[in-house]
Design brief:
Bound molecules: iron/sulfur cluster
Oligomer: single chain
Structural class: alpha/beta
Number of strands: 17
Distance between the termini: 52 Å
Largest sheet: 7 strands, mixed
Strand order of the largest sheet: 4-1-5-6-7-8-9
Radius of gyration: 22 Å
Strand content: 15-25%
Length: about 475
């Protein structure tokens, strides 16, 4: 079947697509690659991938395109689901002959309700959907495809689960799909060099953080990996394909979960002479950091979450504050840049712990930070905990507001939704508006005209974000 993969049009600047862990519009316009859609697209020759938000495409732009397709696969998320259903209905009205399916963590968690949400949705595919979609595109009857929930004569049918993929080298490279269908310059992430290119070298995370969506819904808690040779070969090809790429990013949940493998990949990348970065937990020992740094590692994206040890226990982070501090010192010593991510409003949060976390962030001093509101996505332990304890604040369980920015969905008897919400802006201001940080960022801008233009643009967007919060 002629197949279209679609990251649907959504809120202006909404990064909720098939590669985004926090589905929301960011403080600074940025997009992750739609890698989860590119992967099945790589299995289906002559398919096409459209990333509407990153390309700034509207529903009116997409409508005529679906006339040429037989199968349309749309990625959805909890915050965007209702809007995505409307897009699906419009596309089905445009071409009633298409078979239309939804994929993503939201439908993995609620397959029956999702497929029943509209007549326009023919099936939903939860968990890992790469080979599920390939089988459908190959024409296999829906009744014989594992991993889907679908409708027959109005009845909702749930097929057997699809077996989890263990041999990750079976997955073809995504970079040829990026080359065919995407404009890589569309993908901006504030802390990565531009243009960057990101892909996965494995799926799943050994940790069990209670708020974390992907391992609890799609990826699982075993880190299943591609072989180092497979990864290095793809990067070698991608380097030739995209000579303009300044940085490769490995978006595995925790690339450093398997240290010998991380070091083996690093050595291969070192031979290629590329600059790269990845997600890491704040527990990587100095020796491994050094091997990675010596072989082109520029930046680590590190989920610190909180500066309060009890909160880290509450969320099952499996991390000790003193280990994270040592790790941060080691990175500074080696010249590895850190983008640190923090969350306010996690279970156990108080005014005092917010203050403690802000001070902690200033002490460990990542180069840049991201501060998020605790987001109880359905399918996570945090969501169940929030429902059980009556922490959810809005009946409709909305997770973003009209413009697509995250809203605070959790409150505690001792800490209101408003206080949690305002803490994000306070955190950013306290972290960035201090002489040491201003000097760091000014120096970075003075070293490069590109960086100057970029930081000025981001600065304007960031101030707009702060003003929107009326702080
Ligand atoms: S370590 Fe990171 S990716 Fe793994 S479960 Fe925790 S937050 Fe998620």
């Amino acid at each position: 079947m002629k197949t279209l993969f679609l990251n649907p049009p959504s809120f202006d600047g909404f990064d909720g697509g098939a590669g985004s862990r926090y589905q929301a519009r960011r403080e600074i316009r940025s997009f992750w690659y739609p890698t989860w859609l590119a992967q099945p697209a790589a299995l289906i020759p002559d398919s096409r991938l459209i990333d509407a938000p990153a390309r700034d495409l509207s529903l009116e732009d997409i409508r005529p395109v679906v006339r040429d397709y037989e199968l349309v696969v749309m990625h959805t998320s909890t915050p965007s689901f209702h809007g995505d259903v409307k897009v699906a209905e419009a596309l089905k009205a445009e071409n009633p002959n298409i078979l239309l399916g939804f994929v993503g963590a939201h439908v993995a968690v609620s397959p029956e309700a999702s497929v029943a949400a509209s007549d326009a949705i023919d099936f939903v595919a939860g968990s890992e959907f790469d080979f599920t979609i390939k089988e459908i595109a190959d024409g296999r009857p829906l009744s014989e495809v594992d991993g889907i929930t679908w409708k027959r004569d109005g009845a909702v049918i749930r097929n057997p689960e699809r077996a989890i993929l263990h041999d990750m080298d079976q997955l073809p490279y995504v970079s040829p799909v990026y080359e065919r269908d995407l404009v890589i310059e569309d993908y901006f992430i504030g802390y990565l060099l531009h243009p960057y290119l990101s892909l996965y070298t494995g799926r799943g995370c050994k940790s069990r953080c209670t708020f974390c969506l992907w391992p609890q819904t799609i990826g699982g808690h075993t880190y299943r990996t591609r072989s180092p040779e497979h990864v290095i070969e793809e990067i070698a090809q991608a380097k030739k394909m995209f000579p303009q790429v300044r940085e490769f990013f490995f978006d595995d949940d925790t690339f450093t979960d398997d240290r010998p493998r991380a070091e083996a990949i690093a050595r291969g990348l070192g031979k290629l002479g590329v600059t790269w970065s990845c997600n890491a937990k704040a527990n990587v020992p100095y020796d491994t950091l050094k091997v990675m740094r010596d072989n082109g590692l520029r930046l680590l994206l590190v989920g610190y979450e909180s500066g309060n040890q009890q909160i880290l226990h509450n969320i099952k982070k499996g991390m000790r504050i003193e280990v994270a501090k040592q790790f941060s010192k080691d990175c500074h010593k080696l010249g590895i840049t850190i983008h640190g991510t923090f969350i306010v409003g996690l279970p156990g949060e108080t005014r005092e712990t917010i203050e403690e976390t802000i001070r902690y962030a200033m002490e460990i001093n990542p180069h840049t930070i991201q501060v998020s509101l605790a987001a109880p996505y359905p399918g996570t332990f945090l969501y169940d905990q929030a429902v059980e304890n009556n922490w959810l604040v809005n009946e409709a369980k909305e997770m973003v507001q009209g413009e697509g920015f995250q809203i605070s969905s959790i409150a505690y008897p001792h800490l209101s939704q408003e206080e949690i919400f305002e803490a994000v802006a306070t955190f950013y201001k306290r972290f960035y508006f201090r002489p040491r940080k201003i000097a760091d960022i000014t120096m970075e801008m003075l070293m490069s005209w590109d960086m100057m233009k970029r930081r000025l643009r981001e600065g304007v967007e960031f101030m707009h974000f702060l003003r929107a919060r009326e702080i």
